[in-house]
Amino acid sequence: MHKTIFILIILFLVPGRLTAQDLNRIIPDPKTGEDMLYGYCNRDGLSEGSFREWFDPEYEKYLVDHIKLNDLNQDMFLIADITVIMGTWCSDSRREIPRFIKIIEEIGAEVNAINLICVDRAKNADVPELADLQIELVPTIIFYLQGDELGRIIETPRESLESDMVQIFSQ
């Protein structure tokens, strides 16, 4: 009995689980020597340490377009899967991702449910699914519904994050 419980615990804890070392991993940027996040990350990683210097001000000053969000199919949005690929070294990522997270929080969605991947300047991250995503520019925000890709916001929104999300979820 004890052996079965031990095996179940090992099977549950080991495969496919992120450890503390895997989440919000910091490596030096070879170009600048500054810290950059690498691999799987979450909101906490973006709002700690040196990343807080750009994350917090951009997050705080952004005014969410609540009128435009009224057009968003929030039921569909709340069941969607979202993958964000960004670089903490990238000015577009530093601008758009704090704004995106603020929108997500104001909608009431779970920010930590977003699959957030931070890449280096070569768009690598030691994350298995990254190769299949065909990332050329960051940030790239990919929206999925039941495994099917609905659309992407690449580098900068066409109109605004809110407008682009409305368009993606109304297709």
Compile the SSE list and pairings.
Layout: H1 2-13, E1 25-28, E2 35-41, H2 43-46, H3 52-61, H4 66-69, H5 74-79, E3 81-86, H6 91-107, E4 115-118, E5 140-145, E6 148-154, H7 161-169
Parallel strand pairs: 3-4
Antiparallel strand pairs: 1-2, 2-4, 3-5, 5-6
Helix pairs in contact: 3-6
Give an account of the 3D structure.
With 171 residues, the protein is α+β, with helices and mostly antiparallel strands. It has one domain (21-169): Glutaredoxin. The chain is built from 7 helices and 6 strands. The protein has helices at 2-13, 43-46, 52-61, 66-69, 74-79, 91-107, 161-169; strands spanning 25-28, 35-41, 81-86, 115-118, 140-145, 148-154. It has a 6-stranded mixed β-sheet. Mean pLDDT is 88; it is low at 1-17.
How helix-rich are the residues, as a percent range? 25-40%
CATH domain topology: Glutaredoxin
Label the overall shape.
globular
CATH class equals Alpha Beta
Poorly predicted runs are: 1-17
Strand content: 15-25%
Q: Looking at this structure, what is the CATH superfamily? A: Glutaredoxin
Whole-number tally of structural domains: 1
Order of helices and strands: HEEHHHHEHEEEH
Decide which structural class fits the backbone.
alpha+beta
Biggest sheet strand line-up: 1-2-4-3-5-6
Mean pLDDT: 88
Oligomer: single chain
What profile does the largest beta sheet have?
6 strands, mixed
The number of distinct helices, counting runs of at least 4 residues, comes to 7
Head-to-tail CA distance between termini: 52 Å
> What's the CATH architecture?
3-Layer(aba) Sandwich
Radius of gyration, rounded? 17 Å
Number of strands: 6
